[in-house]
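To make this tangible, this section ends with a sequence with its structure tokens:
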Amino acid sequence: MSMDFPVVIFGVGNMGAAIARCLRRAHPNAVIWGVDADQAKIAALEAEGVLVAAKSDWRLEDGIVVLSVKPQILDAVAKGLQERLGKGSTVLSILAGVPLARLRAAFGAQQVVRTMPNLALTVGAGATAIATDGLSEQILAKIRGLLAPTGEVVEVTESQMDAVTGLSGSGPAYVLKFLMSLEEGGVLAGLPRPVAHRLAVATVAGTVQLAQETGAEWDALRGQVTSPGGTTIHGLRALEEGGFTASVMGAVWAATERSKELGRS
């Protein structure tokens, strides 16, 4: 799908820059502008051929502004943006915990879309949720096309967005913590760290690919490597004795609750 509308990335920190790179890879000839208070970030992305710095008098009549700034400066940013956005433009927010009601209040009559991506979109393998509340099929189609190059895209109600933040938004940190723990376990058991690192990464990546390609139930796949009285069942028992399942569930819950708190502040 061609991107026949301009995109402005407003805020090119880690996530904003990652989105810009994904879009540029998928749409080499698209018009993608960048706006950021830190001109060095814009210059670096210009040098990569990812962005073109927006002119000081830029205006967007029919396109998408990806809003990637700190939630604390939303009101100030929105005030400055309103005079630059035509009625045909759409604001796509990736701000954690900021509800649609606040976004709509900040941007007035502007079409606003709330999303929650995660860090893996940096390599085009992200998980992004769109809150579909009040969106027309035309706008949804436009947003789906925009986000398709970034990885998996799901549609939820806004009431589910805090849970999305707790699971996939924060999830890469949990997975990386697990990878680190696997590596440390290998070192504890006597493996050289480089070997433990490679095995940990390959094990997690391969297991995810196996689950995706076979479509089998996760517990059924686990059963294939869990023989009675074998090494795996002893390892699984150790995980449960340490509260593994409850800890992971608790992490998702805690991050979800924090997202709710941010939405109320």
Q: What stands out?
A: Strands lie at 7-10, 32-35, 52-53, 64-67, 90-93, 111-116, 126-131, 151-156. The two ends are 39 Å apart (CA to CA).
